[in-house]
UniProtKB/TrEMBL annotation:
Pathway: Cell wall biogenesis; peptidoglycan biosynthesis. Residues 329-450 form the Mur ligase C-terminal domain. It comes from Paenibacillus durus. ATP binds at residues 119-125. It comes from the Bacteria. Residues 117-307 form the Mur ligase central domain. The gene is murD. It catalyses: UDP-N-acetyl-alpha-D-muramoyl-L-alanine + D-glutamate + ATP = UDP-N-acetyl-alpha-D-muramoyl-L-alanyl-D-glutamate + ADP + phosphate + H(+). GO terms for cellular component: cytoplasm. One of its GO terms (biological process) is cell wall organization. PANTHER family: UDP-N-ACETYLMURAMOYLALANINE--D-GLUTAMATE LIGASE. Transmembrane segments: none annotated. This is UDP-N-acetylmuramoylalanine--D-glutamate ligase.
Amino acid sequence: MKHPDMYRDEEIVVLGLAKSGVQVAKVLHEHGAVVTVNDKKEREQCPEASELESLGISVICGGHPDGLVHEGVKLVVKNPGIPYSVPPVQKALELGIEVVTEVEVAYHLCEAPIIGITGSNGKTTTTTWVGKMLEAAGMNPIVAGNIGTPLTQAAQEASPDNWMVVELSSFQLKGTEDFRPKVGCLLNVAETHLDYHGDMRDYVDSKAKLFANQGVSDTAVLNWDDPYCRGLVPGIKAGILPFSMSEELVQGVFVRPSYVPDTEDDLKRVIIYRDYTESETVIAEVASIGLPGRFNVENALAACAVAIAAGADPAGLAETLASFRGVEHRLEYVAEKGGAAYYNNSKATNAKATSMALASFRQPIVLIAGGLDRGSDYLELVPVLQGRVKALVALGQTKDKLAHVAKLAGLKTVITVDNGDSAASVLQKAVQEAAALAEEGDIVLLSPACASWDMFTSYEVRGRIFKEAVHNL
C-alpha cells in the first residue's frame, strides 16, 4: 500500500470493529481518507460504532452489504482474524484492490525501527522479554501489536529514538506487502491455524513474509533447531543471527553444553553469544533464567539474539533473564492446593505448545485439556503424555479425541466433562475433577492444546476462569 497521506479523499473499507480496526479507521480518517467500517456483528454488539460516527466515519453493522467493496475503493484493511473467503475480501481481490492488515498501515506511519517477532508458540513471552531487555539497556522500546498499545496508535507516537517491539501472527503477516522490520524473528513453526490457512504451505509462507522485504542491513533471527526456520534461509537477504539449544553455532546464541531433554544438568549449562569474529560472551547460566521449562530457555535464547541484533550489550542481559517472571496465561503459577501446584497455560492453543509445557515439569501431572476442534488428531501428544501425565480431564469439542489419545498413551485415568449450563461451569467442574485426582507433589496443569472459541471468547477468559476456580477450591 501507499503511505496513508496518499489516500486523501480516496475510499477505504475497514473490515472489523475490534481494537485494531477502530484505531486504523481513526488514523486513515485523520489522514483525509473517506473511511467506511464494516462489521458483521449487530449494532448493539458494536459499542465502538458511535465514537467512530461522531468523527464522521461511516459504520455499517449487521452483515456485509452488496456494494460495500466496488471499483471506487482504493484499499481494504481487514481485521487479521477475518478469513479471505468472506465476500467483501473476495470482491476486493477480484477487482484487484489491495487487501492489507493493520501491520502494513502502521509500518508506513512508523518512524522507529521495528522488531517483528512471530512463531507458533512463545511470541508474547519473547516479545515482552525483548521489551524488558531493551528497556534495561536504555533503548526506549515500545511494545505493541497483539500486546500493549494498538500498533497504529503506537506507530504514530513513536520517534526515531524508540524501538518498536511487535508481536505478529501469521494472520497479520499474510496481509502485508511492504512491511520491513529492522529485526525479524521466527521462533518456531508448528501445525496450527490450518482452518484459516488451508495448508502448511500457506501458513509458512505467511510467516516468511516477515523477512520478504528485508535487506542486507537488516537481521533475521531464526531458530536453528526448527527445520521450517532453516528451510527459509535460501530466500532471506538479511544477515542471519541464529539461536540453538542443540548446536554450538559458528555465529549466534546457543547453549553450552547443548541442551539434552530430561536431564538435570542445567547448573552446568551457560548461554553463549558468538559474534562474526568468533569472539564469545557468556550471557548467563541457564539455571538463572526466571521462567521454568525447556521452551522458555529457547524463548530466552531468541530474546537475547533479538536484543543483540538491536544493539544491546550481550554482557548486560543476565539481569533481565533472571528477573522476568513471565506473562499471564503462559505457564503461570496460580496457587498450591492440598500440596499440588496449579499452573495456567491457557495460551497453549495447539498440541506442540502443550507438549512443551508438559516437558517443563518432572513431577506427575494432572492435565486439563480440550477446546475448539480444528481437525487435528493430537497423536503427537502420545509420547509426551507417557510417563509424565498421570491423569487427563478433557472438555470441549475435542474431549473425545483427547481421551482417545490419552488411552493410546496408556493413561489409566481419563475423565471427560460434559457440557453444562455454561462454559464457566464446565471448566469449574474440570478443575474440581482434577483436584480430586491430584496428590501432594503433583502438578495440575491447564494446557488445552486447542483454541478456546468453542466455549470462551478468548484464551484469556478461559485462563481467568480457571484461576478463579482454583482459588475457590
